[in-house]
Amino acid sequence: MDRLLLAAFSFPAVVFTFLIVVVAGYWLLVALGVSTVEAVGAADPEAFGLGRVPLSVALSMVTVLAWGVSMLGDVVLTTAEPSPLFPGVLILVVALAAALMGTRFAIPVLNKLLPVRLDLVGTDCVVRTGRVDRSFGAAEVTTVDGRTVLVQVRQSGDRPLRTGARARIQEYDRRGGFFWITA
User: Fold this and answer.
1) Is 0.85 topped by the overall pTM?
2) From 3.10.350.10, 1.10.357.10, 2.40.50.140, 1.20.58.1120, which CATH number describes the 117-182 domain?
3) 66, pLDDT greater than 90
4) How far apart are CA 54 and CA 49, in angstroms?
5) Which end of the chain, N or C, is less surrounded by CB atoms within 10 Å?
6) How far apart are CA 140 and CA 150, in angstroms?
7) Contacts of 124 by beta carbon, 8 Å cutoff, 6+ apart
């Protein structure tokens, strides 16, 4: 255990250890509802060659993979001392290259798992939160291939929709990251 802590907080893994803390903090904010998955690189992920995978997911994958490879390289290729500079730089470069390749191979798999947002427009959904109004709500949608997806929704009517209400998805609000629905 001491060896792993030494590896995590010595060069080269310390670079990625810091980034792991940042990534963990970001995902904690997402889990608490303070931020969204699309907050990082709110622009179209397809512009980065990611298809439907949000930039935050891709960057998190690169960080975790690079950290893991750098830890493995440090533990395997060095003794109990922190990495000397040259092997450390080599491990850093190899870890980053391996992480980028690993993420590059994972993106197509993730794209198959994520529904196309525009494909959901025109489909029916079922409200899963206590209410759906102009500022809050989530609904469950069944995709063409039979999977169910929970999406953020809003509705412009005066009477909020309640749990279990059926509605139709009208359009996707790219800026807000949610769908507009009508009962």
Assistant:
1) no
2) 2.40.50.140
3) yes
4) 10
5) N
6) 4
7) 141, 166, 167, 168, 169
